[in-house]
Records
---
Amino acid sequence: MSARTKARKRALDILFQADVRGDEIATILAAEAKRAANEPARQASWLYAREIVDGVIDNRDAIDEQITTFAKDWSLSRMPAVDRAVLRLATWEILYNDEVPAAVAIDEAVELAKEFSTDDSGSFVHGVLARIARSS
């Protein structure tokens, strides 16, 4: 598993925790940063996870607007928390990280959704992200 794939899982965990607990993302991020400092072997994945989460924090309104616009007939509050987190991290990659091709961001997000969410989440996430990628 690549360092970026691991980073996406870490970012997903942070975004999901904040959403489910109702905590600020920055609070969860700070706790994870403290933990990561004690785990040098995971440093490579931590740096990109932090970049993703910081990007989601900095662009949350625009990211959520894109998701809401392209998630036909689905409000953010109606989506499973895992799907929201996956969509946020992948939307950030598609819109704000020129180093990651949209197709890679979409494929990685679909795999995360399949692994951690409902049976229908993979196709739902794919559809939303494909529409976002086409519009950008």
Note: The chain has a mean pLDDT of 93.
---
Amino acid sequence: MKDTGFFAEFRKFISRGNVLDMAVGIAAGAAFTAIINSFVNDIINPIIGLLIGGVDFSQLQWVIKPATETTAEVAIRYGVFINSIISFIIISFALFLMVKAFNKLAEANRKKAEEEARKAPATPPAPPADVQLLTEIRDLLKNRN
């Protein structure tokens, strides 16, 4: 079987070290999402619901067709959508703070490296080619005698 095309490209992608980092990031993101969803559903929404008159967002819906003995209710559950929007905003804000902290750390490291480079003694520039040639000739003549 020829090892080219889509599957060869996929195998090359999988064999990179970044795939493991990406998998760890996805797993951590899923756990983080579960925490944020619990935070929104169990802490934020009850507080907001209490402030606006005891409304539970997850129960907000617009019933299109009521349930009957043989069919289930057909409804647009916009309260769940509101919960998702709140979760998205909180997750986005948390990621913003993380990226901002990472950028600040990277900037501090860059400035530190620049400062160290400035403090390091500068090597003198190489002499011009004619001076180098004359120095070599002098050294050769010195070694002959």
Note: The mean pLDDT is 84.
---
Amino acid sequence: MSKLRNGKLNHGDRIEVYRNLHNDTFSIRRNGKVVKHLANWQSIFLKDVKFAVQPAGREKVRREGKKNVHAFIRGTYLAPSTFPHTTSEFKAKCTEWVTYNPYQNDHFTATVTDPETTFTSYQDVHEAKLVTLTYGYVYAAL
């Protein structure tokens, strides 16, 4: 069993987040080192986010059929204490569900449903103003 880390993040830290398949968490890296694991019941808030997929890593996954760390969410950490009602504000703004599947897509994708027709489409996502990772899902304000 792997050791879960619970390091401290500071408001304004530039971090990278990726899905950790070994312990079913999100791993958070700062300056190239994993400092924290985010359990599915926890939330984290980011701004000025870039969604990055390393093409060589993606192709290796497709070729070998084994997953590796090659896709990241990079952004600036926002401490919940820096403004009131963080969770409800992010919930209202971050409405697009963002996913990544290396076998189906080259990039992160957002699931967009038209409320009038209930037609669901998928669009590539490369950046977002705000992102919340909560309950094991990624939601963005594009």
Note: The chain has two helices and ten strands.
---
Amino acid sequence: MKKKEGLIDKKFLAEEKQQWGKGTVICHSWAEFEKLSEETPEGFVSPGGAADALGVSRVYINQLEKEGKIRAYRIIVDDKLKGSEPFWVRVFMPTKNVFIMIPSEDIAKIKEEMINKAEAKIKKLRGKK
């Protein structure tokens, strides 16, 4: 009988790695993420929050991560780490194994670039160079 490896197994990690790109920062625990996040005082948003802030799709957010235009902290939480909490807490815990957090400053930078491109296009359409 094969020993259960937990929710995060080789197949899962192989599928997850397909999403990684130049902007991916891997954290193998919340403690590791918290240590890295001290360098980012402006905070973080989820990929959905980032997409909403920019008015784009989550697919575009993934593309920006792959191209290295934004950083995406992927926190991998193994189910082996779960279980030390009281039962009533576990009931409310999400079953996700990978949490993705994007620095707000990266989103602000992309937003500024999008605004500059839009303003340049408006000037061009109005005939001003």
Note: The two ends are 71 Å apart (CA to CA).
